[in-house]
UniProtKB/TrEMBL annotation, chain B:
It is found in: Lysosome membrane. InterPro entries: BORCS7 (IPR032143). Pfam families: BORCS7. This is BLOC-1-related complex subunit 7. Keywords: Lysosome, Membrane. The keyword Membrane applies. One of its GO terms (cellular component) is BORC complex. It comes from Scophthalmus maximus (Turbot). Belongs to the BORCS7 family.
Length: 187, 87
């Protein structure tokens, strides 16, 4: 309701200001007949102007170029810090939106870094496995050069085991012979 | 999506209407941004990818340890082979 009163008073000021001006400019034309109404309007205008000192709307200018009347819109004067507030609001909104999008970007960066580290680890493992394969190939080649000696060792072992078997058999046979000899000796 | 009625509110000042409209527009922009991010499912997919990589890292470390042990064993075999060849 206060807004209605302010708005109405502002519109009345706009409407009556030209009337006051015209009344001031043409006091003679108004004369005695219009003096009462002119003075009353003149009295009312300052009263309402005094009632709304902070609101000083722009006086509409009427142009009548070429017989066409044009008028500017009556606007209230902007607050002195409204521009700063608007700039601040849009800046903060931009920062907020940027933050929302930056979160996803940071997730991608994290994954990128993790992938890079994993690829480095795999490269190290690749180097290690290359070294191992090279060493094992050298070992296989040297083992191939030692193969005849190893075969000889195997043969020697087989022969030794057969010799051992023969020795056991000979030992048993000699024991049997000794027992028979003793039997014959007792007779 | 709009939080403010589109019909003009009678009895409200122009300034109040303007501020309400600005507030509703900013809220709509924020909601739109959030919906776009939610619709892309980037957070879910990236989180799942990060979790899988963390699980995989343990296996990678184990594999690396095994490879290092294998290289040490290979080195010992080389030393033994050289000793055999000398003798």
């Amino acid at each position: 309701m206060a807004a209605i009163g302010d708005e109405a008073s502002a519109m009345d000021n706009i409407a009556r200001a030209p009337a006051a001006q015209s009344a001031a400019l043409n006091p003679a034309s108004s004369g005695g007949g219009g003096s009462g109404s002119g003075s009353s309007s003149h009295v009312e205008a300052p009263e309402e102007a005094a009632a709304t000192p902070p609101v000083a709307p722009k006086k509409p200018h009427t142009n009548s170029d070429g017989g066409v009347e044009t008028a500017e819109e009556a606007v209230e004067p902007a607050e002195p810090d409204i521009n700063e507030l608007c700039t601040d609001m849009f800046e903060k909104m931009a920062i907020f939106l940027q933050g929302e999008l930056t979160a996803t970007c940071e997730d991608y960066r994290l994954l990128e870094n993790m992938n890079k580290l994993t690829s480095l680890k795999y490269m190290e493992m690749k180097d290690i496995s290359i070294n191992i394969s090279r060493n094992l190939q050298d070992l296989n080649n040297k083992y191939a050069s030692l193969q005849p000696y190893l075969d000889q060792i195997n043969q020697i072992e087989e022969q030794v085991s057969s010799l051992e078997q023969a020795a056991y058999k000979l030992d048993g046979y000699s024991k049997k012979l000794e027992a028979r000899f003793k039997k014959l000796e007792k007779r | 999506m709009a939080s403010v009625d589109s019909q003009p509110r009678f009895g409200q000042s122009v300034k109040g209407l303007l501020s309400d409209k600005v507030g509703s527009c900013s809220g709509d922009v924020i909601a739109l941004t959030r919906q776009v991010l939610k619709g892309s499912r980037s957070q879910e997919l990236l989180g799942q990818a990060a979790r899988n990589m963390v699980i995989q890292e343990d296996t990678i470390l184990h594999s690396e340890d095994s490879l290092r042990k294998m290289s040490i064993i290979t080195t010992h075999l080389q030393y033994q082979q050289e000793a055999i060849q000398k003798k």
